[in-house]
Structures are given as C-alpha cells and as structure tokens.
Amino acid sequence: MHELALATSLVEQITSVMKYEGATKLHAVTVSIGKFSGIEKDALEFAFPLAADRTPAAGAKLKVKVSDMKLKCKACGRKTVAEMPLAKCGKCGSLDVEVTDGKEFIIKSMEIE
Amino acid sequence: MCESCGCGNVKVSVKGGRKLKIPAGYHVHEDGSMHAHHDGAAATHHHHDGKHHSHEHGDLHHEHHEAGRRRVVELEKKILEKNDIAAEQNRGLFLKRRIAVVNIISSPGSGKTMLLEKTLDRLKGRIPCAVITGDVQTDNDARRLKGRGAKVHQIETLSSCHLNAQQISKSLKDVIDSKTRILFIENVGNLVCPAAFDLGEDFKIALLSVPEGEDKPVKYPVIFSSAKLVIITKTDLLPHLECDVRKMRRYIRQINPGVFIFELSAKTGEGMDAWIDYLEKLIE
C-alpha cells in the first residue's frame, strides 16, 4: 500500500502550489494517473483525505483521471493504445514497441481560493 | 507566451472561461516539468482586469492580485517531483564516480538476499561492491551480507513498502568510497510499489523464483516491463514443482520483449557464471 506515501507527496505538491498562488483553500484537485504507473485509483482516493487532514488541502475533492497506456511501434511507426498487459502493436502486431504514455502521475488542475 | 523565457506552454484559466496570462511567474513545459523564474529579473505580466505592472519574479507570494478569488489553475505538475529530483542527483553522483547501480526488486522470499550473498562472495577481492538493503523491519539482511567484502547499509523503512531516492542519498556516505564500482540496492520485497520510485539507478532487475508461478509477470506487469533484466531464481527446485520455465519466459517476453533473462540457482551455483560475467562486463 504505497498510495499513502503517494498521497502525502500529492499533498506536499498541492501545498507548494497553493503557497505560490497565495491561496488558502483548495476546493478540488484533478490528478491524472497512467494505467501503467502502478498506482491504484481506489487506494489513492482512500488515502488522500488521510494525507490531507490538517493541511491546506483538507476537505478538498479529489478527481482522478486514468489515462491509457500507449505504445509506439518501432516496426510500423504507429502509435496505439495497449491492451494490458500485452506490449504489442495494435496495428501490425510487432513486439518491438516503446511505451510512450501511461506512466504519469501528475496534477492536472487545482481549484483554489 | 512567457515574457521572461519565451516558452509558450503556459495555461491558466479562471472559472467562467476567461484566460489569464502567467499569473505567478511559473511555467509548465511539455515534458510535465514546471519552473519558476527565480532570477529576480523584473517582468511584466497581465492581469484579468487588464492592468499591467512589473514585479520581481522569484517572489513566491502573489496575494496582491489573486488571493481570495476562487479560480482553477491548470498545471502539469509531477507529484513525485521531489523523489525524481533526488534520483537525478544520485544518478549524477554515480555517473561522476563511475559506479554501476542496480535496483533489485521482487516479491518477499524470491531470493534477493541469497543471490547477493553468493554474488558478493564471487566478486570479493576483485570488484569493490556496496549494498543498500531495505526492509520494513530488522537488520537481518545486512547481517547476512556483511563480511563478504562489501560495505553494507540497512534501511529500515518501518511502515513504508518501498525505498525512495532521498533514503538512498542519505545512505550513500555509509557505503560508497572512492573504490566502489557496483552498488546493489536490494529494495523492499514487493512487486508493486518499488516500481513507481526512481532511485537514480542505471536500471532495475526483477527477480522471479520458480515457486511463484509462471504467470506472475502478467499479473504484475509494471515491474517486469520496466526491468532491463529478469532473473529466474531457485531453479534447483524445478524437479519438485510443476513450473514450466519456458512458459514463464514467454510470459516475461509478452510484456517486455527485449529483456535479458537469466536462470540460476544461487544455492547450487548453477547459472551463476553467466550472471557474474554480466556484472564484470557491466563495469568494463
């Protein structure tokens, strides 16, 4: 269960943006997690209120978007959405692929006051 | 567009659809990174009310124009930024000192410590090694690894299920000296969490012991996909199990087609020569 550690990092980053923006209240935060980041949406949603307790992020709504894992095929050059857990080009079936998207864990937006 | 550095990737919108330019002097770049101008240079920026004024960038507080206003800030801010920065600092240090660093990840009980014991024995007196080993509790692993010619440091993570880059930075002074050529990081036994944390290593090694089942790579794809090397361990147990190693290799290649795979038994020594040879070539 590393989502508590991840939620703590999330709250730290939120706090630094809020300080920067001169904001005192966070209404909502939108986070994007890649399907291939190893981060579980439900566990993060569970951990966030615990990590946010007694911080400027307390009480905020967490919105989580899960983004697809995308592959770039080195054989045909096309970009396809991977069907987990197969690392195979969706067009030509080649196994010579590179994961281009799906590992991110980022804050997309924050509604602050 | 940012008026200080010219980058054009700044997005900020206010609820209600109005767009603002550079509200607080920080920028979001296409790679997801964000930077602030801390150079103290005066820069002009625009306010939603149409007023322009100059101020010192690097001033972290901008209450003068935005505080108290409910608004949406769009960002691309990496949540593990602090870990990633520490990892890059570690990587820079390893590069400067020419130390090869591997991050070894597996389930608990896959044989990480046993493999390291035998590896250190084989490299003793030839290649100066160091080990950082992580466990939730106890220094049992460090005690097992000591006396084999390498400097060993134990990190007890207590409640945490993975090592992070800051823990590695703090431990380096205890294990690395001017002679060190290989640093083994034995991560906490866990196939999920350690995959998310870059420690500054050259690459990750995943261990998979034969009793764990052939399809583990597809059940835990993230780690097996991000490893450069997979070591199938405890092959001495194969006569007692129904594990089909060819099937196991197929599952590994299914999610990581180009990965190197070693098969070995640290206990009997079978297959160890290829692994030791690989490590020797790594630092050539």
Q: What is the multimeric organization of the chains shown?
A: heterodimer
Q: Unreliable segments of chain B (pLDDT under 50, ≥5 consecutive)?
A: 1-34, 36-64
CATH topology of the largest domain in chain B: Rossmann fold
Q: Give the biggest sheet of chain B.
A: 7 strands, parallel
Strand content of chain A: 25-35%
User: What name goes with the CATH superfamily of the largest domain in chain B?
Assistant: P-loop containing nucleotide triphosphate hydrolases
DSSP strand count of chain A? 6
Arithmetic mean pLDDT of chain A: 91
Name the strands of the widest sheet of chain A in spatial order: 2-1-6
Major beta sheet, strand line-up of chain B = 8-7-9-6-10-11-12
CATH class of the largest domain in chain B: Alpha Beta
Helix and strand composition category of chain A: alpha+beta
Instruction: Tell me the span between the first and last alpha carbons of chain B.
Output: 47 Å
Helix content of chain A: 25-40%
Kindly give the count of domains of chain B: 2
CATH class of chain A: Alpha Beta
Please tally the helical runs of chain B, counting DSSP H or I stretches of 4 or more residues: 9
Low-confidence stretches of chain A: none
Rg result of chain A: 17 Å
Please give the domain count of chain A. Answer: 1
Short structural summary:
Chain A is of the alpha+beta class. Chain A has two helices and six strands; from the N terminus they run H-E-H-E-E-E-E-E.
